[in-house]
Automatic annotation (TrEMBL):
Domain WCX: 218-294
InterPro entries noted in UniProt: CBASS_pafABC_assoc_protein, HTH_11, PafC-like, WCX_dom, WH-like_DNA-bd_sf, WYL_dom
Organism annotation: Planotetraspora mira
Name of the protein in question: Transcriptional regulator
Protein origin, superkingdom: Bacteria
A Pfam family matched in the record: WCX
Domain Helix-turn-helix type intervals: 2-42
């Protein structure tokens, strides 16, 4: 088949066919092409993939990587189940038993304990547009005014982070939460992602920039051993990096804070097990709140 024929059959661009052919060559698939009017790509006669070439750890890893929840959200739940059945049937009996044992003893549950399942009714349409490189018109809800806006997106890829789906899309690119899409229309308009775009690389940079933007200041605190044991994430890391022990058994440290409002709520949750030394405005707000709370419990 010619590159044009393959592109039409697979509903992708000719450029994508060329790229995929190069990838197949690199992975050892004996695909070759003949130039000319009657030329095209074809496999070496008799070539077959060999699932029996999988090692036992490889077969176990394939079944361990199955994520039925996200697959179902993408509309691929039945396809994933069928693929696992076919793969299992193709394995030698001893390897099939090892894979089944792996699947029965390990279960992946990605979302956090206190995160509710997000409703993503438009995820299958978005995923289809990502796969077929189709432009999207979306109605999107954001946090600032005006909250509901219209956007034209060129979807480069989808990311599943802690149980929440994100779409990375041009122009930009920028990142959008799929559960905040209120409506979507798939255009009959194809696009090509930039050649240099790498989804995994973009997401790594996006996370680094997010964490850099997240913490806007610092607070100097004293924490008891009980409070120290309750700190998590960046606060726990900062405690380990900057903490100095004091004679009374408490620890003085410099902790990152997102904002005065956020720090006020976070530190209040630690009660009398923390003392905020600075900044002065945060200490003053906590003192005022503490006096108001005390008044509630001491008034007649």
């Amino acid at each position: 088949m010619t590159a044009a024929d393959l592109a039409a059959e697979l509903e992708v661009s000719v450029r994508t066919v060329y790229r995929d052919v190069e990838a197949l060559h690199a992975s050892g698939v004996p695909l070759y092409g003949d130039a000319g009017h009657s030329g095209g790509y074809q496999l070496v006669a008799g070539y077959r993939t060999r699932l029996t070439g999988l090692s036992a750890p490889e077969a176990e890893a394939l079944f361990l990587s199955g994520v039925p929840g996200p697959a179902a959200e993408l509309g691929l739940g039945s396809a994933l189940a069928a693929a696992q059945l076919k793969l299992s049937a193709a394995l030698p009996p001893e390897m099939r038993a090892q894979a089944d044992r792996m699947r029965s003893r390990f279960h992946l549950d990605a979302p956090g304990w206190y995160a509710e399942d997000a409703d993503v009714p438009h995820l299958p349409q978005v995923a289809d547009a990502v796969w077929r490189s189709r432009v999207l018109d979306v109605r999107y809800r954001r946090w600032k005014e005006p909250t509901d806006v219209d956007r034209r997106l060129e979807p480069y890829g989808l990311v599943l982070k802690a149980g929440r789906w994100y779409i990375v899309a041009g122009p930009g690119p920028r990142t959008y939460r799929v559960d905040q899409i209120l409506g979507v229309t798939v255009r009959d308009e194809e696009f090509e992602p930039p050649e240099e775009f790498d989804l995994a690389g973009y997401w790594a940079r996006y996370q680094a920039e997010f964490h850099a933007r997240r913490f806007q200041g610092e607070a100097v605190v004293r924490v008891s051993p009980q409070a120290a044991s309750r700190l998590t994430g960046a606060a726990a890391q900062a405690l380990a990096a900057t903490g100095t022990a004091e004679p009374d058994g408490w620890t003085r440290a410099v902790l990152p804070i997102e904002s005065l409002d956020h720090a006020h709520g976070t530190f209040l949750a630690l009660g009398a097990e923390i003392e905020v030394l600075g900044p002065p405005e945060l200490r003053a707000r906590l003192a005022e709140t503490s006096r108001a709370m005390a008044a509630h419990y001491t008034s007649g």
